[in-house]
């Protein structure tokens, strides 16, 4: 299993975090750093993948926070205070070139993380992310360059994280209800406390992916 370097950055802007990801991705491709995970909160921002379909933003010109088009997959989502964002710079050349298996591992680890707080979510067939029944707790969107990953997940921790989803269609899923870990656990939680547990749970990301699912470049 490859070692992973974890960094909790606190609250930073989206562009600052993106620029840092780009630097780390290049360094990982060159073998200068180990696999690295950034855990953080963002200032309020909407992001959307590079797609001609922008309907998930609804009326983009009237949204209350900036909109950024980025190189991850997927439709519109919101990032802001009260949400734990994880950006993962991992070399899939080492653990397995299978993006589907990598996404499933992320889902499994986020489920394990939520279980540590007494919540038992699940994945849903055909819908990437983590759910409690019909309520969505976490979103996943990744990018890959020369089989090194960037972007990652966003886990709603406190109710403060939910407000920004109201003006959009989260991940393009009509009628979806967004929820947060604190509400589902019925207890007070902080992003930093959840980040600490995330470091423990995500330490296993460096293990090889299932050989049965390994793909080719």
CATH class: Alpha Beta
Beta-strand content bin: 25-35%
CATH topology: BirA Bifunctional Protein, domain 2
Largest sheet: 8 strands, mixed
Describe this structure in words.
The chain is an alpha/beta fold. It has a single domain (4-209), classed as Bira Bifunctional Protein, Domain 2 (BirA Bifunctional Protein, domain 2, 2-Layer Sandwich). It has five helices and eleven strands; from the N terminus they run βαβββββααβββββαα. The chain has helices spanning 14-29, 92-95, 99-115, 181-185, 191-201, and strands at 4-12, 35-42, 45-49, 67-70, 77-79, 83-89, 122-124, 127-132, 135-145, 148-156, 177-178. The strands form two sheets. Strands 1, 2, 6, 7, 8, 9, 10 and 11 form an eight-stranded mixed beta sheet that branches. Strands 4-3-5 form a three-stranded mixed beta sheet, with no helix packed on it. A hairpin with a 2-residue loop joins strand 8 (127-132) and strand 9. Helix 3 packs across helix 5. The longest helix has 17 residues, at 99-115. 39% of the residues are buried. Mean pLDDT is 91; it is low at 212-217.
């Amino acid at each position: 299993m490859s070692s992973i370097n974890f960094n909790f950055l606190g609250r930073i802007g989206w562009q600052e975090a993106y620029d840092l990801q780009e630097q780390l991705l290049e360094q990982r491709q060159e073998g200068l750093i180990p696999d690295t995970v950034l855990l953080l909160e963002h200032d309020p921002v909407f992001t959307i993948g590079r797609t001609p379909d922008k309907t998930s933003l609804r009326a983009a010109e009237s949204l209350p926070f900036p909109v950024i088009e980025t190189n991850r997959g997927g439709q519109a989502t919101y990032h802001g205070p009260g949400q734990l964002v994880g950006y993962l710079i991992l070399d899939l050349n080492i653990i397995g070139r299978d993006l589907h298996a990598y996404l499933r591992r992320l889902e499994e680890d986020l489920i394990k993380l939520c279980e540590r707080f007494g919540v038992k979510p699940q994945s849903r067939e055909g819908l990437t992310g983590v759910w409690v029944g019909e309520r969505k707790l976490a979103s996943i969107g990744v990018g890959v360059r020369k089989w090194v990953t960037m972007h990652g997940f966003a886990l709603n921790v406190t109710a403060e994280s939910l407000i920004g989803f109201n003006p959009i269609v989260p991940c393009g899923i009509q009628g979806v209800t967004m929820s947060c870990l604190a509400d589902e656990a019925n207890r007070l939680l902080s992003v930093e406390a959840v980040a600490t547990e995330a470091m423990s749970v995500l330490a296993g990301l460096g293990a090889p992916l299932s050989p049965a699912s390994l793909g080719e470049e």
